[in-house]
């Protein structure tokens, strides 16, 4: 019965997509859902709008899910091949609601659509969805391939506390990507809808997240500004999410906020369980016709309701993920999911588990093969096998190492020389409470000498540090790599630079403060601040939005309580091509 359906039983996800949808949003959505499959009991998938209606397939493991999804990729030739036939979406949803394979209590349904349905009355389906607390989230191409009625799509998501995105091309891809991020934080704790017109302000009463008091965690959110494809009646929306004590303010639009994708904007704020928050929206439409603004917010806590000709950076198409057999499961899994998500950006992904009694071989995968469940790691000399693998190019490769055990070798200059000669960049996250081994210095040296970096941390800090480290795979072109040997207190001022856009800590460390600012004063990112991520172990990572028309400065104030030399590394990455940077003296 509905009364027996609670949010923590939210263990079924359905991914349904049109056979006519573009491959990029399909693949990105599929990878995202596969990555989060481990969090759910059952994941179901089905391809829509085929001449021969297909059956929903149900899976309890990521391997079978991946095999099923990628063997049923979008193929317009299997579709209706006309502009008049409506989507079969509602027929498929009826089957899902009466299935005998998975509980629908608290299920999440993700729809990626190219074709509108024709039905104008789906109240029976909506009633069943609501009775079972099924939440429907929809991304629909605003340039449809057929069908006549988009209003029921919005109504179905609206009535189930989901939301509906209307967008096309890259906006559809980006919007659906952030929509599926909700799978990591599935517990919705704010869902409000406002019918407005003209200009005005909405003030959501102070609210708290389900985050435990004293803790802080990410709260994804979404806002939609129209119940249809964005049209000329929409002028603007500006809003803030702020703590009532004034210590935190998120502003849209702003340098730190994601843009509007179609009719929806999604992002995340860090919620402190000790604080209350307000959400204030100023809206402007150039019509008095009613408009709907939806607000949604989620949480992970339960809530009862220098190049050579042969080697260029853009050929950076191989990634090696090597991890210690001793590493804890959650850190390993977190990173594996992140690396798998970025697999589509690289020609070859290589994986190996080290520190095993029986040394294991590196495995190589291509074409977004399902690799995360196979992730197998090793001793430092595994790099030699990678460099002499004979299977794939390692020009410009990226190596991500997750280590629990230190190596014993004190001289790895031969490996470093080969890495540098081939522009291989090594990033290492090493547990500062090792399971064995004697020499951590060579790990730092190898990362340093290849323009990567090495993070020493443990427990939750290790997990987060390596999670951020793997995000570099989405921004592979490094354009800042500088190192500074310092002691005592002082300041580092990095010379003015431009982005390549087209027109474990010990007691000697006291503090660090820095700014990244445009020289015209229009943009400043500060650390530490409410908008910046904290220091995880010895490393701090984050994002800044850089304008290709501007120049920037990076100013760092540091304080150590010793005169012994310390090394500060600065790294910055972009999605736009940039040549290899000079390596440090070796």
UniProtKB/TrEMBL annotation:
UniProt-listed GO biological process terms: innate immune response
One Pfam family per UniProt: DUF7154
Annotated ranges, domain DUF7154: 192-299, 482-574
PANTHER family: ANF_RECEPTOR DOMAIN-CONTAINING PROTEIN-RELATED, HYPOTHETICAL PROTEIN C.ELEGANS
Name of the molecule in the record: DUF7154 domain-containing protein
Origin species: Caenorhabditis remanei
Lineage start: Eukaryota, Metazoa, Ecdysozoa, Nematoda, Chromadorea
